[in-house]
Amino acid sequence: xxxxxxxxxxxxxxxxxxxxxxxxxxxxxxxxxxxxxxxxxxxxxxxxxxxxxxxxxxxxxxxxxxxxxxxxxxxxxxxxxxxxxxxxxxxxxxxxxxxxxxxxxxxxxxxxxxxxxxxxxxxxxxxxxxxxxxxxxxxxxxxxxxxxxxxxxxxxxxxxxxxxxxxxxxxxxxxxxxxxxxxxxxxxxxxxxxxxxxxxxxxxxx
Length: 206
Known about the structure:
The chain has a single domain, classed as 3-Layer(aba) Sandwich (Rossmann fold). By secondary structure, it is of the alpha/beta class. The protein is built from seven helices and six strands; from the N terminus they run H-E-H-E-E-H-E-H-H-E-H-E-H.
C-alpha cells in the first residue's frame, strides 16, 4: 500500500470542492496557491484529519454543460469571477444553476472575486460582489492569486463551514440512534413488567 493510500486511510473526513467560473478568472492560479500539487490539501480541524480534494474545471468552460460527474458528491462549490471582468460575474448565474441541478442538496457555495490586485482595472465593485453573494445567501471574499491575499482564508472558511455542518449532522444521527436504543429498551422493560404482572395474576387464580 502506498504512502498516499495510507494517508487517505488515516483521514477522518474527505471533502470535495469544485472551482467553477468563466475561463481566465484565475481558478487554476487560486488552486496552485492553496495546494501546490495533486490538487489535494490535508488539514487539521478540531483534532480531526481532513483531506480536501479540489476539482479545477479550467479548460472545460468551452463546453455548454459540465459533465454531471464533476459535481456529484461535492461538498462545496467555489463560484469564481474576476473583479476586472464584469461578464465573469454575470456568467456565474449559469454555473450556479447547473451546480444546483447536479450537486447534493446540502452543498455549500462560496463566492470569490479574484484578481483583487488589479484595482485600477476594476469593473466589479466590492459591493456588487457582496450583494450577489447575499442574494444567494452565501459567503463572499475578494482574493488575489498573484499576491496570495485571502486565498488561504477563503478556502479554509469554506472547509470549516462544511466540516462543522457535517459534525452537527453526525451528532444528530448519533443522538437519534441513541434515542432509538433508549426507546427500544423502555419498550422491553414495559413489556417485561406486563408479562410479570400477568404471571402473578394467573398464579393467584383458584
